[in-house]
Design a protein that fits this description.
The protein is an alpha+beta fold. It has a 5-stranded antiparallel beta sheet. The protein starts with 16 loop residues before the first strand and ends in a 13-residue tail after the last strand.
């Protein structure tokens, strides 16, 4: 039967009452144990709230309840050992161990309340009362475990008061935890520490107020001790507190590690979600491929591009979709972006830019194949090239109109002359015909012959005989020139397919020279020397013509600058072609002003120009370099001597490199 049911007044006739004293070191140690247990429990509450599964929440709930319960018990047992009576006291191991259970159950109720989202007053009172009863039951069970040659009785008022005090203090402790947690001023670590201190004071207050309710009476069999202090009690209390400290520390460390792992897991989940969102929303198709070329996944854009679901494509050979993805590329050895053809699941072929990257994972190597549909881009490039050509023709329109107008004018004049000459000849023939008819009929007179002679005189037959052939020749020459200009303009402005095709460089250059004639004919002569052994060269015809046009116009402007606007002298532009190893070499030399040495390194920079404002955009040579070097895989070099002229040398491969046969112009 538990001893705490015995109150003062029951069983009168007891021996004299004796009082005990406290070891202050052990008292402080007991309070510290209670505060540490409360602090460890706050960390557990955070893990309960952060648990992503019910199983994890239950596990942390059990760990927290056991930690706080053992901490409360440790505080109680240390406090009991701190209380020194003048006689020998032993403890029942069974009851002492059993006293842990109510403390643990009360702790479980408190932690359940703290970790929940529903903090109503009713729930607060239930949790606080459960905790107070658990602490009280633990305390009085532990007191009943005392074995001594004396009697223990309780003051009824203080007995009940200890339970009430425990309930009030538990209410304050639990409520303060929520206040400190929600406070912007006292939050975080300071709030947890303050809450732990208040909880520790609650547990300690319950214990020592309950101890104050206990009274001890000796009997005739009681042997009083001269020195009640016991080294073994201090050692035992210290050991118990130390062992609990280890348990509490392990709980804290576990909570911190779990929190760190949860944060890492959350970060990984967030990162995975961000990456998935990026992959799902990116405008490029992405196909993940194993070393052997087997598809293991694709993003939604790739599904759209190839009209194929990801699960349907899984296991496919990448070469089904990208047949020209050669072995070097499929092994990830090629990391640049290049253009090729892709095949949709329905057989539709479309141009794409492809980039292959190696991914080294613990499970092995994968390759990410990024695919960008270039159908719209190529269409836009085609329109842009056409616009650039039309812009060039627009800039040369006045000169071209003049080039056409000059031969048309003298063709028109010669036509008027021929018309008049023809009319005069018709009149002469008619007069001669009438005279012949009169002679045949015998009615001719000298007057008739004089009239015919007058008509022939007005017809100026000698003049007509001498000038008609020349007028016809001039007219034919003029019409030939007009036809050549119109043909050149038609060829220059006609849109190509935007792919490399073998072209006759001599014919292309002559056509461009004709289109630009009005830009150079007043300031220089153009001399051409084309190699006869030069085969057709694979080029982007439109863009090559644009480069030659820019070069000729620049050369003419340089010569005009060197000679001056009013000079009657003329310079020379010399254009030559030759075959040099595997290159087609085009050289364009002028006798212009030349390029200063300090300017020479910058001439291919975009928007760099030495011309006056309004006479140049600084794009011509930058475009030339892009076309020759980037799009044709060639070279462009320049030699210049200030005051003597410049020579631009273009080198274009005679054949496409084998690795780029499948590429279109980028």
């Amino acid at each position: 039967m538990f001893g705490f049911i015995h109150m003062i007044g029951q069983n009168p006739g007891l021996g004299p009452e004796v009082s005990g004293q406290y070891n202050p070191v052990l008292v402080a140690l007991s309070v510290l144990a209670a505060c540490f247990a409360a602090y460890a429990s706050t960390a557990v509450v955070e893990r309960m709230q952060g648990a992503t599964t019910g199983r994890a929440r239950i596990l942390w709930h059990a760990i927290g309840a056991l930690t706080l319960g053992v901490g409360i018990w440790s505080m109680h047992f240390t406090g009991m050992l701190a209380f020194l009576l003048p006689f020998k006291v032993k403890y029942s191991i069974g009851l002492t161990a059993a006293s842990i259970v109510p403390a643990t159950l009360g702790s479980a109720a408190a932690l359940h309340y703290l970790a929940s989202r529903d903090h109503t007053f009713r729930r607060l009172q239930v949790a606080a009362l459960t905790l107070a009863l658990g602490i009280g039951l633990m305390h009085y069970t532990g007191m009943d475990a005392m074995r001594m040659s004396a009697y223990m009785r309780y003051d009824a008022t203080l007995f009940v008061g200890s339970i009430v005090a425990a309930h009030v203090l538990a209410t304050l402790a639990l409520y303060s935890r929520q206040v400190f947690k929600d406070s912007r001023t006292i939050g975080g670590g300071i709030g947890r520490l303050a809450s732990a201190l208040l909880m520790g004071v609650t547990v300690s207050g319950m214990h020592y107020s309950a101890m104050h309710a206990a009274h001890f009476y000796i009997t005739k069999k009681t042997t009083l001790l001269l020195d009640p202090s016991s080294v073994s009690s201090v050692a035992l209390a210290t050991s118990v507190t130390f062992l609990f400290g280890i348990v509490g520390a392990l709980t804290l460390i576990g909570a911190l590690i779990d929190k760190r792992l949860a944060n890492i897991s959350r970060s990984l989940d967030d990162s995975r979600a961000r990456n998935e969102a990026i992959l799902n929303q990116m405008q490029d198709g992405l196909i993940t491929v194993e070393r052997g070329g087997r598809i293991v996944g694709m993003n939604p854009m790739a599904e759209t591009l190839f009209a194929m679901a990801a699960d349907e494509a899984e296991g496919f050979d990448i070469n089904v979709l990208l047949p020209r993805l050669d072995q070097e590329e499929s092994r990830g050895l090629r990391t640049d972006t290049y253009r090729t053809e892709a095949f949709r699941s329905d057989g539709f072929i479309f141009p794409v830019d492809v980039s292959v990257n190696l991914l080294t994972l613990r499970e092995g190597e994968l390759y990410s194949v990024f695919i960008r549909d270039q159908s719209a881009s190529i269409e836009m490039e085609t329109q842009l090239r056409q616009a650039q050509k039309l812009e060039s023709i627009g800039q040369l329109a006045a000169g071209i109109a003049h080039e056409i107008n000059t031969p048309v004018q003298f063709v028109s004049d010669n036509t008027v002359f021929l018309q008049r000459a023809f009319n005069a000849l018709v009149d002469a023939v008619d007069a001669a015909t009438r005279l012949i008819e009169d002679v045949r009929q015998g009615v001719a007179t000298p007057t008739s012959a004089d009239a015919v002679a007058d008509v022939f005189a007005r017809a100026r037959l000698d003049f007509v005989r001498g000038n008609v052939p020349r007028a016809l020749e001039q007219s034919l020459d003029g019409l030939t020139r007009v036809a050549r200009i119109v043909s050149a303009m038609k060829e220059f402005s006609h849109p190509s397919q935007g792919i490399k095709e073998p072209i006759d460089l001599a014919q292309a250059i002559e056509m461009t020279v004709t289109v630009a004639r009005n830009e150079w004919k007043y300031v220089c002569d153009v001399e051409a020397d084309f190699a006869e052994n030069l085969p057709p060269v694979p080029c982007l015809r439109d863009e090559f013509n644009q480069v030659i046009l820019n070069m000729i116009v620049n050369a003419a402007h340089a010569i005009r600058e060197a000679l001056g606007e009013e000079s009657e002298k003329k310079g020379t532009i010399t254009i030559t072609t030759r075959k040099e190893a595997g290159w087609a070499v085009i050289s364009i030399a002028d006798t212009g002003a030349g390029i200063p040495d300090q300017v020479l390194p910058k001439i291919f920079d975009p928007f760099f120009t030495t011309k006056e404002v309004g006479k140049g955009t600084g794009q011509g040579l930058a475009i030339a370099r892009n076309v020759i070097v980037e799009k044709h895989g060639g070279r462009i070099d320049v030699e210049s001597r200030p005051g003597s002229g410049s020579t631009f040398t273009l080198r274009i491969p005679l054949t496409e490199p084998e690795s780029s046969l499948s590429r279109e112009a980028a």
